[in-house]
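The protein record passed on below.

***
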Amino acid sequence: MLAWRYLNPRRAMLSVVAMISVIGVMLGVLALVVVMSVYSGMEREIKSRFLGFIPHIRMDYAPDGMHFGLADWRTMARQVEQFDGVAEAGPVVQDSLMMDVEGRRLYGTFQGIDSESAAAVKGLQAMLDMEDYPGSSADMSIDDRVVIASRTAKQFGIGVGDKISLLTMRNLEEVERVFDKTKQPPVREKFAAELEKVRELVATTWKETDEGSQLTTDDFNAIYTPLLNILQSEPRQQEEEIVFNAVTLLDSAANDEVNRIQKLGKASPEQFLAILDELKTTDVEKMDAGALKNIEQFVLPKEAVVIGVYAASQMAMTPDVFMPLGLAQELAGLDGEVQAIGIRLDDPYLARQVAQEIASKLGEPGWMLTPWMEVEVMKNFSVLIEQQRVMMYFVLSFIVLVSAFSMTAVMFTVTIQKRREIGVMKALGAAPGQIVRVFVYQGMVLGMFGALSGIGLGLLVIRVRQQLQVALRGVGFDPFRADITGFSVLPAHVNPAEVVVIGVVAFLLCALAAWLPALFAARSDAARSLRNL
């Protein structure tokens, strides 16, 4: 009763100070509720976007740590789809590229999309920016049609229906390899000593027989090994074909393991030497001219039509270009293969358990399964968001803490103003605990009103955040630009448990803030208080 009486609004000074304390608590709780809800919403939305196009589990064939492309990936994909929790399995093709629009160039990344997969197309469709780029589509069933990121569209100043040229780094590597070949001396000069030794071995060790010709296994290996070394040195194409023909002739030998003899047909030594003699007649300038002419098929970029633009965020790394699987394989130089198999799950958050189950039951060594949460990009994003959340909790909690200190100052003021009344209560027999409760109740009432009003106002701000953003943009102030966040309307997710914790902590801090002044009031001397000393 006394606590409520002291909080009577008609007591001007006390009421104003009390209201200031309530407003301080309210603002602290408001800031925490709004900011934490926005962070939760952004994390959920960005993860949802990621999970819309990345595989929930990436399945690579990497025996002994060496990654290999997959040609018959469909067979393994169908086998994986039989596991519980797996929605579908499809190809993974991604690489870097250079984009060109009328001479303006940018470097970026691309990812192939299996246009026959309804889930993959649906996930990409959900990411499209239909507000700024109406008419966007994810239907890439026809080759040379791509979907680009909004940041790429803005940098180039292009949109739906425009054309973009694509050139991958693989192309440039191939060009560099061709130029390196033109700088090499011809095989007849570079491997002159090895070729001469091979000819001597053929003349002295390759014997004609009634059934054909033969070599000992040791002499065969002494001839065969230098030719393999020549092939591994990546000679010019014509020279490579000549040496390959010589190796093919040797590969036709029948192996007599008992007698350690390699048997070949009649006239094989003469045929072999005739093949090697072709190396003496090659025209280096002509071979280099032909190689440089063939560069056109490597350096000519692929021209594609932009059929859609998706909303990209600078807070998360996403591909600059989505393209059909066939085009992605061509640009990545995979020749019909894929880099890995991407597994999509009914529940993406069970990726670790499903990956362990598939690995244990697959029964084939060499397969490496990586859940999405262990992919470097997603791992860094999760760590970044979590660190930012902790930092915002730390910073914004000081607002509530400062409000609690102001509550302590208010309660000290009240106890000083009410010291004569405290003296009267003590003279009438009031126990110290009763006096403490009077002022602690005041702090609890102020804390309750501050926490409840802060929660209510915070939920209201979250509800009308779109209107607030529009109003702020109308006056030229936009702290949450869509080109940075990737969202035209700031996402938010209210976690009821988190909101309750914020409110309870604010309430307890206010109650504790009133405890110290209440103890001083309870320990005051009644006689001195009544004398107004």
